Amino acid sequence: MHVVVNAAMSADGKLSSRRREQLAISGDEDFARVDRLRAKSDAIVVGVGTVLADDPHLTVKDDALRERRRDDGRPASPARVVVDSSGRTPTDAAVLDDAATTYLCLSEAAPVDRRLALAEHAELLTAGDDRVDLLRAFGALQEQGLERIMVEGGGELIFSLFEAGLVDELRTFVGPTLIGGRDAPTLADGEGFVAAFPTLELDAVDRLDGGVLLTWKTNDR
Ligand SMILES: NC(=O)c1ccc[n+]([C@@H]2O[C@H](COP(=O)([O-])OP(=O)(O)OC[C@H]3O[C@@H](n4cnc5c(N)ncnc54)[C@H](OP(=O)(O)O)[C@@H]3O)[C@@H](O)[C@H]2O)c1
What we know:
This protein is α/β, with parallel strands linked by helices. 25% of the residues lie in helices and 24% in strands. It contains 6 helices and 9 strands. Strands 5-4-3-2-6-1-7-9-8 form a 9-stranded mixed sheet, sandwiched between helices.
């Protein structure tokens, strides 16, 4: 399995404002790059916080990329995965439409009524007691044949993936905006590290959309 975390952040490292609404931090060049990365992936993973904040669809948008996937015998868009301990994903969320297969990674704490409601729209995986155990959940995804994984946020999930040692690559578009705010989400939130900080190796630096795309490889995986 190969896990790429991709996110767009402001010049001061924020994924959004303190209102947690979806913001256009990048532009057309970066959207096209993200679409190409989606098209190369077997699955796109987000945390439930992102589903609740942004209601993303997480499909491949470009017709030619969708066509190429079909020609290769793959579905037009990769599978979508939501990490959602208690099944808070709304049943009318865009990720639950029939444009692609969707997996919901739940914990044992997800109530039965939520499981029943969500099972009509998605494949349910259970890993962890109160919170999703990411190592086990990603193992279950691998068993489904999902090898090339793209993670699209948000900050809570990204931190936990680094904590679990699951990240191979980090691609961050750093845009020409300053958002600020101590409560605005950053690239890696969660508890934060106080020691044994994950270290990265810079692989590429590319200018696009008036900002910069940084491609990092992790050292600890
Ligand atoms: N700029 C970008 O590229 C970008 C991309 C994505 C999102 N965003 C922004 O980021 C914000 C949302 O990010 P977020 O950090 O609030 O939410 P998130 O990372 O998308 O989701 C976090 C939630 O996932 C669930 N979860 C279950 N198991 C977990 C685990 N082991 N580790 C971590 N989380 C786990 C938790 O909710 P439960 O306890 O209920 O399970 C947790 O609150 C929004 O403002 C959105 O606009 C920006």
